[in-house]
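[step 3/7] inverse_fold.run input=structure_tokens len=178
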């Protein structure tokens, strides 16, 4: 008799071909039941990887949305400055919601009020654009990983389905030949 234990399942097998030759957690099962349980475990494992990935993608999308709003606010602010502005005048007024988003993403800020100079606005525009680019690169990697997980799950179900179909065909042939 051989035993295999994985993920709280113990599979026992004495060599033969009858119903009771396999035991799953001590209960007699046939080969189809084993394949169903293996498929369930593979699907559960894949879903266990998909859930945190989905959460990360959702959180990143929210951050990208927030950064998009800040980018729009900074762009409006930049438009308020004249092209020949020397950059030292504090004339632009950043909305509090945008400042809060910048603090939550970048940490503490180096200005005490919401008024910004032209140079500060341009500096923050570049920082926000860089952060958006970095998050978009991460998103591409995560989407590739998600697609890989979906493919693995589909393959597991397809393999189990094909195997069960073949087992059913074999049983039908055996019964027909009797």
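[step 3/7] decode complete -> sequence:
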């Amino acid at each position: 008799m051989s035993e295999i234990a994985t993920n709280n399942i113990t599979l026992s097998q004495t060599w033969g071909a009858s119903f009771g030759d396999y035991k799953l957690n001590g209960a007699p099962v046939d080969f189809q039941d084993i394949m169903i349980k293996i498929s369930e475990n593979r699907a559960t494992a894949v879903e266990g990887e998909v859930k945190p990935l989905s959460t990360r993608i959702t959180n990143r999308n929210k951050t990208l949305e927030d950064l998009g709003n800040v980018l729009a606010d900074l762009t409006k602010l930049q438009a308020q400055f004249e092209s020949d502005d020397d950059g030292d005048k504090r004339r632009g007024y950043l909305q509090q919601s945008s400042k809060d988003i910048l603090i939550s993403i970048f940490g503490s800020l180096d200005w005490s009020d919401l008024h910004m100079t032209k140079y500060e606005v341009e500096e923050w525009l570049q920082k926000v654009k860089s952060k958006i680019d970095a998050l978009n690169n991460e998103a591409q990697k995560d989407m590739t990983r998600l697609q890989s997980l979906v493919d693995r799950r589909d393959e597991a179900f397809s393999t189990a389905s094909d195997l069960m179909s073949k087992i059913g065909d074999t049983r039908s042939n055996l019964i027909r030949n009797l």
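[step 4/7] annotate
The radius of gyration is 30 Å.
The helical segments are 31-80, 96-106, 118-177.
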